[in-house]
Amino acid sequence: MSFAAVRASIRRAPFSAARAPRVIRNNAFRKYSTDVPPKQSNTALFAGLGAAAVGGIAFLVYTSSSDSAKEAGTALKSGAQAARVAANFVPTKEDYQKVYNRIAEVMDEAMDKGYDDGSYGPVLLRLAWHASGTYDKETGTGGSNYATMRFEPESLHGANAGLHVAREIMEGIHNEFPWISYGDLWTLGGVCAIQELGGPKVPWRPGRIDGFMAHVTPDGRLPDGALGYDHLRQVFYRMGYNDQEIVALSGAHALGRCHTDRSGFEGPWTFSPVSVSNEYFRLLLEEKWVWRKWNGPKQLQDKGSKTLMMLPTDYALVQDKSFKKWVQAYAKDQDLWFKDFSNCLSRLFELGVPISQFVSSDQWVMKSTDEK
């Protein structure tokens, strides 16, 4: 058996013998990250800033009345020009596929290192999600374009606690492929996590550029798991999503677990936290959920095994009629959820990125490990 086949079989192994989900696909988990990457040479910096420019793309220059913003815009332009000279090549889809392949390999290294449930996939997805979910459609700020979580104070925002783990993993990959922007790298990591762990194809395309501290977004733009459905609507409506899309995106909790040293919450959402399936929705409806009695923040646990958890924001999906009808639909039809989730996630990863920056008018579908 080839090494790739061994890796694929390992990822598909069910997480818990106590109870396997109805649909068992590939395995992965989820984790979080928060440090500013180490300084690099000017060549590497310009290559990172100008990943899109290397491909001959016109960059959006940030403009503002503030001196710092003007300096950032000037640096973006000069960095794009320097990148053409420093990199001296135009990355193709095949080049980005190589980055994807490397991310997939690194994801599995978590098993040897005893990290969570044996995959870095969930934490890489969380990094991509949190880097993109800061978008504000009214002001046009936030989103994945500038990869601003590299800087304080955004790296220290409570919602990003623990994401230094994912950023450090991605920094190692960036050192191998210094021409790719952090925004492209992080979102490609989210795509890889979903596809390698049994989920749907997530269309993606490169073109994000790396900004500066002047682009850092304010705290409070990401969901707070301790709140309810009004909060969910406030956060997701700001990004441009409707009730159906809020539920579809919430299904990402099929992956991963919470950690007391990060969010304060504890435990996995499903019995197979390294497998993408609609089990999250089925469990929400079929399990008896009770408030956990412990010293941590308010969360629910399943009455039967007492090993699963749901956040107040998760439980809100079955307490609100508009949300619940979509929970029911996705619990019955995984293919429907895969389709809607893929569309919503692909859109999420492009929030805040000007169309003119993308290297292609069409989105790409990257090949998963099993397809090679």
Task: Describe the fold and architecture.
Helix 6 packs across helix 8 and helix 11 packs across helix 13. By secondary structure, the chain is mainly α. The chain has two domains: 188 residues, Peroxidase, domain 1; 115 residues, Orthogonal Bundle (Peroxidase, domain 2), CATH 1.10.420. It catalyses: 2 Fe(II)-[cytochrome c] + H2O2 + 2 H(+) = 2 Fe(III)-[cytochrome c] + 2 H2O.
Kindly state the number of beta strands.
Answer: 5
CATH topology of the largest domain: Peroxidase, domain 1
Strands ordered across the widest β-sheet: 3-4-5
How much helical structure, as a percent, in the residues? Answer: 40-55%
Question: Main β-sheet, in a few words?
Answer: 3 strands, antiparallel
Rg value: 20 Å
Instruction: Let me know the average pLDDT.
Output: 83
- Please give the CATH architecture of the largest domain: Orthogonal Bundle
Which structural class best describes the helix and strand composition? mainly alpha
